[in-house]
Structure formats: structure tokens, C-alpha cells
Amino acid sequence: MANQVKLKISRGETQGKEFILQQGENLVGRWDPDYGAFPEIDLESHDPEAKVSRKHALIRLSGKSVSLEDLGSLNGTFVNRGARLEKGKPVDVKPGDELIVGKTFLILSVEE
Predict the structure, then answer these.
(1) pLDDT-based confidence at 3, cuts 50/70/90?
(2) Top-confidence residue, 12 or 73
(3) Contact indicator for 66, 93 with CB cutoff of 8 Å
(4) pLDDT band at residue 2, thresholds of 50, 70 and 90?
(5) CA dihedral 34, 85, 107, 40 (to 10 degrees)
(6) Are 53 and 43 in contact, with CB atoms under 8 Å apart?
(7) Are strands 41-42 and 24-29 parallel, antiparallel or unpaired?
(8) Which CB contacts under 8 angstroms, 24+ apart, belong to 91-98?
(9) Residue 19: how many CB atoms within 10 A of its CB?
(10) Which of 7, 37, 65, 79 has its CA 20 to 30 A from that of 98?
(11) Residue 39: phi, psi to the nearest 5?
(12) In this structure, how many other beta carbons lie within 10 angstroms of the beta carbon of residue 87?
């Protein structure tokens, strides 16, 4: 069986909620049919302050490698509380990394 790559919300009222990543592109954002935003990782109900953009970030899963790219979000995307990611410049992320999307905190994990 293949490894399962997950994002788990690490803070707030919905702490513990998990999202399973699919091979290829996984859009992170808020569902909004009026804007054509249908993210695989919909943070609408986990983002009480509405800090997540409709099309906020993109997580690419290719085999075992994972990258995160900001799509020009208003409130930014961060890895391990480092500098704000530049729009359109993917960075590699690994299990245990903390991904901050707007004000939503997620931990990347891999399960065998």
C-alpha cells in the first residue's frame, strides 16, 4: 500500500481535522462557486476570520516529494514560521513541517 500524505489542522476549534493529499495538484483555499474556486483542501469552515483566499496556495504531490506554492494570497503562506512565500515560487516541504495558510495552521504528515 502506498504512503498517505496528510495535512492536519494543528490549532483552533477544528484542531485534528485531516485532509488527504492526492498525487498531483491540491488547491488550498475556500470553496466559492461564484469565483470558480473548488479547492481540494477547503478551509472555509476552519477559517473563522476569513484569512484564507479562495485560491490561496497549491500543494503538489509527486511520488514522495511535496511542494507548496503561494498563489498570490492576500494574507500569505508560510512554512515553519519562516518568511512569507513568494507568489509562484514553490518550496519543498517535508513531514513535520508546519504550513500556515492565512491564519490556519497545518502539519504535514506521511502515514505508511
Answers:
(1) confident
(2) 73
(3) yes
(4) low
(5) 20
(6) no
(7) parallel
(8) 91/67, 92/65, 92/66, 92/67, 93/59, 93/66, 93/67, 93/68, 94/66, 98/10
(9) 20
(10) 37
(11) -70, 145
(12) 13
pLDDT of residue 95: 96
What are the tens digits of pLDDT across the range 57-104? 999 999 889 999 999 999 999 999 999 999 999 999 999 999 999 999
48 versus 77: the higher-pLDDT residue is 77
How far apart CA 21 and CA 65 sit, in angstroms, is: 12
Query: Could you give the CA distance from residue 59 to residue 13 in angstroms, rounded to a whole number?
Result: 23
Q: Are 70 and 56 in contact (CB under 8 A)?
A: yes
Q: What is the CA radius of gyration of the chain?
A: 13
pTM value is 0.93
Burial of 47 (0-12, 13-18, 19+ CB in 10 A): buried
Q: List the one residue out of 39, 33, 25 whose CA is nearest residue 73.
A: 39
